[in-house]
Please model this.
Amino acid sequence: MTPPIIQAIMTVGTSLPRIDALSKVTGEAHYPGDLVMPGMAHAKVLFARRPHARVISIDASAARAMPGVLAVFTGADLPVNEYGLVLFDAPVMVAPAASAATETSFDGVVRHEGEKIALIVAETEKIAARARDLITVIYEDMPVIASIHDAVKPDAMQIHPHYAGNLMHEYRIRRGDIDAGFAGADVIIEDTYFTGAQEHAYLQPEAGLAYVDEAGRITVQVAGQWVHEDQEQIAHALGLPKDQVRVIYPSIGGAFGGREDMSVQIVLALAAWKLNRPVKIIWTREESIIGHHKRHPMWAHARLGARRDGTLVAAEVTLIADAGPYAYTTTKVLGNATVMCVGPYVVPNVAINSRAVVTNNIPSGAFRGFGAPQALFVAETQMNKLAAALGVDAVALRLKNLLRDGSITVNNTPIPPGCTITDVVQKCVAAAAVAVSAPAISGQAGSRFVTGRGFACGHKNIGFSFGAPENCAATVELHGKTTVERAVVYHAGADCGQGAHTVFLQVAAETLGLPIEKITLVASDTATSGSSGSASASRLTFMASHSIVGAARAALDKWREGERPAVAHFVYRPRATTPMDPITGEADPNITYGYVAQSADIVIDRETGQFHVRRLVCADDVGRAVNPQQVVGQIEGGVVQALGWTGLENFAQRNGKVLSQHFSTYLIPSVFDVPDVVDSVLVENPDPHGAMGIRGMAEMPFLVVAPAVVAAIHDATGVWINELPITPERLRAALQK
Model:
């Protein structure tokens, strides 16, 4: 029987309004760039703006002498001048090696043009900018290696002292007998692919405010994706205990993985610590573009073999990722790409070799999809080429080979229970078969304009992978006399615009049986919550729902026992995963997976090489949609962002220099580039690993847009495209050939 303190209130599955919607549309919400404090100083960063050079000397005397300048900080001012999510392999600021305050692994070398050299703090932003220009840095330029293929040549200069031969990391998967597999194939598809870098282009560039709070803690208010990781990175660089550093997230203007690594956090904390006054910084868009990491460019060579009846028998992939000079999250991104590069299929014989290579390009790191989009571009284009070669329907070929519960993956272990890719594919196909109206094509069909349809599907991990520690904490307080009258939920999870905080309250309301307006959320503050883990890996709703349900139930138990107020803390820990064996690649790498299928209808202007997506059907298994409206928003946003990567966003680097430093030269989708119709198909098969059946889905809509579009281009023109982005020039040249 339901306890009398709990009412049956259904909030999960309801499209409730976002709790931050009103404040954001009225301008009342404060983003990091909006924050002000009395006595606030302003900071600017001096960037190296050269891809490879040794710093001989830094002369900031003229800058320090300028009226209004409060301080100029360099790497020599940092007790521990290093940071890194996976490895501490990057300097916070590059300083001449002889000036380091403590010995580190760094040698005063600039390794990409977005390296920080100095932080200037002044009474106004204008003064700080003018003082920055007075700093004289003497460099000794060094050879630049911008090509992954050049970087691994035997005579190539070693870029980073940690990475011999410019090899950062590698994985290897071996399953079955690859030679026998291909010997038994009737058809073999072999080709080479390349995908480019991508800029996150979030709404607000990097900004923040740092100060010393009333408890004496260095407090940093920034936009990020994991407050406790930011806290740890800051404390490490300043040589302080973590409890002397506090990180708070105000409203966040988008992230997409671009805020996982450090940007302004450590230098802001340094300035506030040294000056004992508030310090604020806002990067320009140009500074943001060179100052944070990008999606990994990847090169791949792939072979796929099948019998004449369509049964897959062998897959071989060589994958090389451009890491830039530092690790950031490269080792994990490469691992994901390795696992997904043959797609969501049963393949008995597999050989995969993947490498992350060090270059002098802008560092690569997390971006929505985390390696899976690059991998699935290869896998799904190979499958579509195989269908064409066999003369069979591309969907039927997939249905014959898709993973199902109990299927053995490339890692030679069973796919986790809850594998629903077959259902997702079928629902996508059914939705695509329903005719919808779309704007008429201008011009005469069959002449200048041609149309086509393409299909692709894929899967991706939910949660951290390869044995990485995974947990999520929540605290719930219940207040009242005889009945629970209100509740407070403490949770560190970051709402980067995806609506996570609304979802937290919906899950809490349903578990507690309280109306959502009677629950207060205290979020994204290291001083009030245990660690939530990152808002990444499509994990936050999945993990947070477990932690909130656990804390809420524990608080209700205490309430029944007479505790007033009742306070409960709960840490959710999912089942453990395992790293890949270095020889065979055998592993149980992921907690669970998300599944997606997409159908794209496009029109191509053969004269200009431009294409437009008229309709895109995207089916995602979300387990249980906590807030269906927000799920649809994630699908629409992910699709458009993926279309940018597919056809518009040409992040140009030449000899280590970024050529596209502005939105006038780096084009992102506008309203004119959005598909005429986006059909969002919400598939709800409860995930056996999820609280309430919830399954993460934020990255899934991005995953297979590119191969679906490429398949549609082939359907319309007979031309295959192997390189992204598919710019008009690139497509027109292919059509002319």
Q: What stands out?
A: The radius of gyration is 26 Å. Residues 422-459+592-737 form a domain with the Aldehyde Oxidoreductase; domain 4 fold (CATH 3.30.365.10). The first helix runs from residue 21 to 26. The longest strand covers residues 449-462.
